[in-house]
């Protein structure tokens, strides 16, 4: 009855935004045909959760109703997403946290990204005749999954600093139930299951070539699940139950680590028990810049968070209200600012324990002003490097009645990560380490125990030291750009979270494995604006309205006077923003 009630509740609460997918089980073209967002602007006073899947939002909201903190709710929602949104995040991925502590008005950060294994060397890959690390398969899974360590670190932080009295095991009841007893497949999962079992691309897609992937994510006849069909993951349910009972040590030092490493060794993988045993998640200092009258927080390297902040730092030198919302000048300005920020990112970003990254200089007002001067409002900068960071990721936000807040990013890199599920675990491993370079002179060159360049960067805007906007998105290259869109629309043009997310989006760069390094514009952008951007030299490609290419964003705004919370979620995903 509990499971039935949860499912029925989801049906009534969720605004099912991708109905086109439900009507077309074959998912022709893999694109949405939405013409108008149907998402709402939920308001609440006691707590708010937004995530890219309605069942995860409900799991987090249930914790808040029972007196849990924003951290407790975030863990429950994130754990649920590893079950119902495996194309975007799993137990085998990484996560990054920004936590606002209302007791001391401080923002803290947790880096739970995995390091490369002790055997992960350039020599090893070169010795196999490889010029780059494969995107799929066992050799792509060369970094330790950090997700569970992030939950553990955040939970212990909440116990010590937020007076949380929630029990660890109680945070996992919903994900264990959904993994064991099943859940209805959503539109996004159905879409990516179809894409990634397409045999036309035998190297990147065609994930059914991996036996455990086929067993877990495909029906007995070998076909992908479609919208509304029930997917059960009993092995994953058992793994979650072990973690709930025995804590994070079960994943890194117990039976789960042993199963993963045994399967790795059997199939030519390189992660070892030492790699798991020595893994740690770290409390780190967040980075920030001023934007207008606010402070924008983001995540330090090894993530691209400083690029997201550089964009805002550049935009500080322009009056966007004069530029105008949705004008050719608006899009052109942010795109050109993005190019400047990405040039710095691609030059410097890697693991700061291995390379020096001059953050003070990169985030200084002087550098932002210099970058702003390089922007020609009449012409697109032509000399840009090819870009290739994809990203299958989730962002979720939580706020509790005590004033604590969480901005959390969790990811496996490509859709369904490496495609590898170690036998008996149900845990899909990420392929984040495939982004390492095999060029020893590259800033992101592969080395044992090194953290790779991460596109993930959760964000938080404060006003007078209090959280004002929590925001973030999936989407690799699109993350800094969508963050800029959300903040400029909400701060400079006074949009609600949902209005800012619904508004037409763009993507400069290369994503989802496409070869083009261009400017993708949703067809909802007016024709005259698109034509003007093309005339300025932008390599324009017009894409569908509400295309999944633009990622799944979310945001929560907290009124500084009344404390009223307003949430937004992306019509491109299966999300829900809800509060009480």
Compile the SSE list and pairings:
Blueprint: H1 2-13, H2 19-23, E1 43-44, E2 48-51, H3 54-65, H4 70-84, E3 94-101, E4 106-112, H5 122-127, H6 147-161, H7 173-181, E5 183-184, H8 187-195, H9 211-217, E6 230-231, H10 234-246, H11 249-252, H12 255-266, H13 273-277, E7 282-284, E8 287-291, E9 294-298, H14 305-315, H15 320-323, H16 328-348, H17 359-362, H18 365-373, E10 392-399, E11 405-413, E12 459-463, E13 466-473, H19 478-492, H20 497-502, E14 506-509, E15 518-522, H21 527-535, E16 540-543, E17 553-558, E18 565-569, E19 576-579
Parallel strand pairs: 15-16
Antiparallel strand pairs: 1-18, 2-10, 2-19, 3-4, 3-11, 4-7, 5-6, 8-9, 9-12, 10-11, 12-13, 13-17, 14-15, 17-18
Helix pairs in contact: 3-4, 4-7, 7-10, 14-16, 14-18, 14-19, 16-21
Protein described:
The chain has 580 residues and is of the alpha+beta class. The protein has a domain at 305-390 and 465-561: Serum Albumin, Chain A, Domain 1. Helix content is 35%, strand content 17%. It is built from 21 helices and 19 strands. The strands form four sheets. Strands 1-18-17-13-12-9-8 form a seven-stranded antiparallel sheet. Strand 14 and strand 15 form a beta hairpin. Helix 3 packs antiparallel against helix 4 (70-84) and helix 16 packs across helix 21. The chain is globular. The two termini are 23 Å apart.
């Amino acid at each position: 009855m509990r499971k039935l009630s949860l499912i029925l509740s989801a049906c009534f609460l969720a605004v099912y935004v991708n109905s086109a997918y439900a009507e077309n089980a074959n998912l022709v073209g893999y694109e949405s045909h939405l013409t108008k967002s149907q998402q709402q602007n939920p308001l609440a006073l006691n707590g708010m959760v937004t995530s890219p899947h309605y069942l995860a939002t409900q799991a987090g909201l249930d914790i808040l109703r029972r007196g849990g903190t924003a951290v407790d709710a975030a863990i429950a929602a994130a754990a649920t997403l590893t079950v119902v949104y495996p194309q975007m995040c799993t137990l085998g991925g990484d996560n990054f946290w920004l936590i606002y502590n209302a007791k001391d008005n401080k923002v803290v950060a947790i880096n739970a990204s995995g390091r490369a294994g002790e055997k992960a060397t350039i020599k090893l890959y070169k010795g196999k005749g490889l010029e780059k690390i494969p995107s799929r398969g066992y050799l792509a899974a060369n970094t330790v999954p950090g997700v569970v360590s992030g939950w553990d670190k955040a939970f212990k932080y909440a116990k010590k600093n937020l007076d949380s009295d929630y029990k660890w095991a109680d945070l996992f009841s919903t994900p264990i139930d959904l993994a064991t007893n099943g859940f209805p497949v959503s539109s996004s999962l159905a879409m990516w299951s179809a894409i990634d079992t397409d045999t036309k691309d035998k190297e990147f897609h065609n994930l059914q070539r991996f036996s455990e992937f086929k067993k877990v994510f495909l029906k007995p006849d070998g076909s992908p699940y479609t919208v509304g069909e029930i997917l059960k993951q009993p092995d994953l349910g058992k793994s979650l139950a072990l973690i709930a009972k025995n804590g994070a040590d079960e994943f890194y030092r117990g039976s789960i680590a042993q199963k993963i490493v045994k399967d790795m060794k059997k199939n030519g993988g390189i992660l070892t028990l030492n790699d798991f045993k020595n893994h740690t998640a770290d409390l780190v200092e967040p980075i920030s810049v001023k934007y207008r009258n606010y402070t924008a927080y983001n995540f330090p390297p090894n993530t691209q968070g400083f690029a997201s902040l550089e964009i805002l730092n550049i935009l500080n030198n322009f009056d966007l209200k004069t530029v105008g919302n949705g004008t050719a000048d608006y899009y052109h300005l942010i795109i050109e600012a993005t190019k400047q920020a990405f040039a710095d990112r691609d030059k410097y970003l890697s693991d700061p324990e291995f390379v020096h990254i001059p953050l003070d200089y990169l985030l200084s007002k002087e550098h932002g002003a210099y970058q702003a001067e390089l922007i020609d409002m009449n012409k697109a900068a032509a000399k840009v490097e090819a870009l290739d960071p994809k990203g299958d990721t989730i962002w979720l936000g939580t706020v509790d009645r005590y004033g604590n807040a969480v901005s959390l990013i969790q990811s496996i890199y490509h859709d369904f990560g490496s495609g590898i599920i170690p036998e008996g675990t149900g845990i899909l491993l990420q392929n984040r380490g495939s982004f390492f370079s095999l060029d020893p002179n590259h800033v992101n060159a592969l080395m044992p125990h090194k953290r790779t360049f991460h596109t993930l960067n959760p964000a938080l805007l404060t006003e007078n030291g209090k959280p004002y906007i929590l925001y973030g998105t999936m989407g690799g290259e699109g993350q800094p750009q969508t963050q800029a869109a959300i903040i400029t629309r909400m701060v400079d043009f006074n949009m609600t979270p949902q209005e800012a997310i619904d508004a037409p989006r763009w993507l400069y760069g290369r994503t989802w494995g496409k070869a083009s390094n261009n400017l993708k514009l949703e067809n909802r952008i007016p024709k005259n604006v698109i034509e003007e951007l093309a005339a300025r030299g932008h390599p324009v490609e017009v894409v569908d309205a509400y295309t999944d290419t633009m990622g799944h964003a979310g945001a929560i705004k907290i009124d500084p006077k009344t404390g009223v919370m307003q949430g937004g979620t992306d019509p491109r995903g299966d999300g829900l923003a809800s509060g009480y």
